[in-house]
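Re: beginner question about structure tokens

> Can someone show what the tokenized structure looks like for a real chain? I only ever see the sequence side.

Sure, here's an example I had lying around. Input first:
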Amino acid sequence: MGQKVHPYGFRLGVNKPWRSRWFSERDYDKLLVEDVKLKSELREKLKAAGVSSVEIERPGNKLRFLIRTARPGIVIGRKGAEIEKLKTEFQVGGGGIDVILGDIIWVAEFAANDWLSDLSGRFSAEQRSAFVDGTVRSFTYGGQIYGVPRFLDAGMLFYRKDLLEESGFSEPPKTWEELTAMATKIQAGERAAGNSNLWGFVWQGNAYEGLTCYALEWTYSYGGGTPVGVVSSPEKAALLHDLGVEAVIDRKAANYRFWKDEHTQDEAEWRRLGKDIRALVGDDPDIVFEHPGRQTMGASVFVCKRAGTIVTCAATSGYMIEYDNRHLWMKLKTIKGSHFANYREAWDANQLICDGKVQPPLSVVYPLAEVGEATYQVHHNLHEGKIGVLCLAPEQGLGIDNPERRAAIGEDKITSFRRHGA
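And the corresponding structure tokens:
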């Protein structure tokens, strides 16, 4: 009797490759069985991806898969999420994942895709109170808890007592200004003594998250910056004051005329605005959020600080903008466009609202029958903040699903725009 042999075996090394390309003097049989199992699991997990073949290589102590597929997007996933998921599964021995050690930037995406379990019922409020609040909020999505903090990164300043004492300092710096002055003096003294390799301050200046942490620490230590509001009415100025913004300019009361005529802008008026800003806060703004567009873009570019940024997010007065490019390129400024946000930024913005740090700018709500009046208010700029229109909802307030959180934030804060819009 004959025995059937798969023709693939006759083609190996001729026009077909080995599907497992490795050799091991130890545990060869176990690894071979593992290869078969891994291929089977991969085909099952990726059955919607049109996989034609799975090949395995084992260079050193690593495991490498070569997957031929008609639909690579399914294998890769959004921003590589599916690939990372597969890697994690195989690293822990296959099968379902029980626990992962994940970065906080994964929480929103993983929770939204139902890849994480809601731990709110297992991680009680009493247990959460033992952790730094910010770490718990990092694992919160949609009001639910999806993780437990394992460790916390914190900025630390390491210093040499001997160098401080040699330069006449009795204690380490407490401010950025003291750090700059002390590091400069120590470095100069060491260099003069022949130690050319010593730097007064060594820090994470590369373009990665370490640099972001330094920037956040610097911003936080100065109170998070000083906002300057430029509005178009006394009512809007009062609203900003109510929100805690002390420096406010009513541009209509100041009667700025940034355009002499339809085609010519007036730099003298730009300078007047810049002078008024400096009179309020003592400096030019590092960041200018530009909304009106054509009417004010020239002034925004001018008043922004040297090497600062102008963020344009709309163009309500016209999108064919004009500005004096000399004030941009000669002073190293940047214009950045912004329209909505990426997934992480949107999640962070929602979290700020959940934490009560940003309030919804809804000033008035109209029933659907009065949508014409709502449109008139917006068209003539008679409103503050945003206007809402009830479409399917019969009444307001039906979306409130966490009254305890609302009470903790404070009804007065949440409805500040509503009270001013009344």
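Each token stands for a local structural state, so reading them left to right follows the chain. The first strand starts at residue 20 and ends at 21.
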